[in-house]
Amino acid sequence: MSNDAATAANATSTRITTPTVEVPEAEAPALGLGVSLPPADARAKTEGTFPYAADLWAEGLLWAAVLRSPHPHARILSIDTSAAVAMAGVRAVITHEDIPGERAYGRRIVDRPVFASDLVRHHGEPIAAVAADHPDTARLAAAAIAVEYEVLEPVTDPEKAFAAEPLHPDGNLVRHIPLRYGDPEITGEVVVEGLYRIGRQDPAPIGAEAGLAVPRPDGGVEIYTASTDPHTDRDLAAACFGLEPDRVKVVVTGVPGATGDREEPGFQLPLGLLALRTGCPVKLTATREESFLGHSHRHPTLLRYRHHADTDGRLVKVEAQILLDAGAYAESSSESLAAAVAFACGPYVVPHAFIEGWAVRTNNPPSGHVRGEGAMQVCTAYEGQMDKLAAKLGIDPAELRLRNALSTGDILPTGQTVTCPAPVSELLTAVQDFPLPVLPKDAPEDDWLLPGGPEGAGEPGAVRRGVGYALGMVHMLGAEGADEVSTATVRVHDGIATVICAAVETGQGFSTLARQVVQETLGIEEVHVASVDTDQPPAGPATHGRHTWVSAGAVERAAKMVRTQLLQPLAHKFGMSTELLQIADGKITSYDGVLSTTVTEAMDGKELWATAQCRPHPTEPLDESGQGDAFVGLAFCAIRAVVDVDIELGSVRVVEMAVAQDVGRVLNPSQLATRIEAGITQGIGAALTENLRSARGLIRHPDLTGYALPTALDAPEIRIVKLIEERDVVAPFGAKPASAVPVVTSPAAVAAAVRAATGRPINRLPIRPQAAVAASNS
């Protein structure tokens, strides 16, 4: 049998299996938008029976392992795979020489090699991959590959990247945005300056990356993975494999949570190459260390600010320099920089603004999309400036913010008019008026929880309480001319509706929302959302609230088309228009009560279906002066943080976070509250504990012991004080994204509260213990 025939025979007999999930029967929930419909997969996920990519299996399975560079910067002199190839059980070893198609990839800028060939540009960069009969064999074989390096001096300081030798053929500068708005000569009567540093936060997904690649009889390949943007991943894979896109299929498995681009193509591409080489299914389950080394992180950022104001505290001018460390490759740095520059002044009215923004390549780990990218870093800086300005003027920090708060009709420093609801003052007033938590001295001593946890080493007498405020903003959907479009199909048969849409459920609640939309539009209780693969039309990535807007909007349009198909025969029969008929609780009734029937009876065994698209109004790139209508819409949030700080040890406990948020419309109350709480907790991690540290480009402690995620003991009382439902008229349902803006705002609020408790400037995140020691004790 030829190799091609063996490949085809093996692929034909391959069977993919996943654990069987049994969902117990439950009482029928309330239907439609505005109710807390529980997720269909909630029980399976909480019991640990939900099938993730790491659970996949196939007949004839091989295991993959990837050899990664131990150096952040080095020249590759030679790669010797002979020892690995000779090992028993090894079926294939591949390097850059074995890539039949494009050898570099990138979702936005194609600059990242699948395997390093001549230069290594960051610690953990892939060099080679192995497929073997057993995972241990694969890892041993990868370790047996001999690579001769000429170690080079790494460029790890982004400020030095401007003058350093080019680390990449495209140079070290990814993007420069000079924003110019107003009169550069104007000055304020009061001026404050500040320097701020934001650390490298990791997405830290609950489950590390995993995937399975299966060769097809036609010479193509299917990749099963937790992709959050399957069509883009398919196109990248096809280019790498030298295949037409229709010969590569990406099937989305259960996604174990995502706060960014969940699956890096760098984990998927070696799998497909190995499957095509061996003719066998190949699986990879990354270790936590490989996960830290392989995926992108939040951009470490250096920010210099100068705020000008009059003696009443009203802002006159903001000047800033923002430097994003893109790491070794461009990734989403251009988009992150645009958000940082555009929102550098925050949700405040600023008549004059001059912002310089840069994103540069270094030999640090690659940076990419993490929830609230760009906006989170500048929020910490501009809110630090507002606290400095309040202290210098002797004005209450909340009052100073109210005097400058943005509202609908105001103009951003990019020249774009805020046309969406912007209830910034109302949000801040809500958290300001909310009662403060009880002081420890007013509670039983047994209930005290000192900074450092229940067994904290501090003394109650050294604890100081601080209260801080922050206002944050994010943009919705993509920006700067991104074509935001999604396609959905709704099919109804035998009283059951099915939604087909390639919008990936990442934990943001799209599957639940899609069911609610169909239930409300068609009055059908049983709604199923089909699993996602690239045979479906594209829906785009699961970022910036896209699927709540464009994908759920497409579902609504398709469901309304089916509704028209359903109602037209009845309307014609009774001589009325479809607008005079309504569907509720599974029944169709007319305005005058003459017609009353059930949806099932009206269907009469027919199958109805419709496909629709949703595309928001277009945007435009920022021009050479940082001007342009770059954003579809904006969302806002106000948070008041209350912290207890041990001023001798510098340990911090977040006591309470009071949040008021501009949500447009509440579509699922329980789901919305969960998203806000999760976003705040992620922000607290960025404020106090999360920092993927590196020394000269080498990641230190790439595991969950060295990288400190907040736990249940770190989570404070989160009080959702107010949800403002002022609908955005251009958005389907009028809703706004919920989870990114609390991530953006909460670190700044915690920093402000620690500032208030200690009298220290707090200009670095995460907040180090030595920075939280009170000024009188330092």
TrEMBL record:
<dbReference type="Pfam" id="PF02738">
    <property type="entry name" value="MoCoBD_1"/>
</dbReference>
<dbReference type="InterPro" id="IPR000674">
    <property type="entry name" value="Ald_Oxase/Xan_DH_a/b"/>
</dbReference>
<dbReference type="Pfam" id="PF01315">
    <property type="entry name" value="Ald_Xan_dh_C"/>
</dbReference>
<feature type="domain" description="Aldehyde oxidase/xanthine dehydrogenase a/b hammerhead">
    <location>
        <begin position="47"/>
        <end position="153"/>
    </location>
</feature>
<protein>
    <submittedName>
        <fullName>Xanthine dehydrogenase family protein molybdopterin-binding subunit</fullName>
    </submittedName>
</protein>
<dbReference type="InterPro" id="IPR016208">
    <property type="entry name" value="Ald_Oxase/xanthine_DH-like"/>
</dbReference>
<dbReference type="InterPro" id="IPR046867">
    <property type="entry name" value="AldOxase/xan_DH_MoCoBD2"/>
</dbReference>
<dbReference type="InterPro" id="IPR008274">
    <property type="entry name" value="AldOxase/xan_DH_MoCoBD1"/>
</dbReference>
<dbReference type="Pfam" id="PF20256">
    <property type="entry name" value="MoCoBD_2"/>
</dbReference>
<dbReference type="InterPro" id="IPR037165">
    <property type="entry name" value="AldOxase/xan_DH_Mopterin-bd_sf"/>
</dbReference>
<dbReference type="InterPro" id="IPR036856">
    <property type="entry name" value="Ald_Oxase/Xan_DH_a/b_sf"/>
</dbReference>
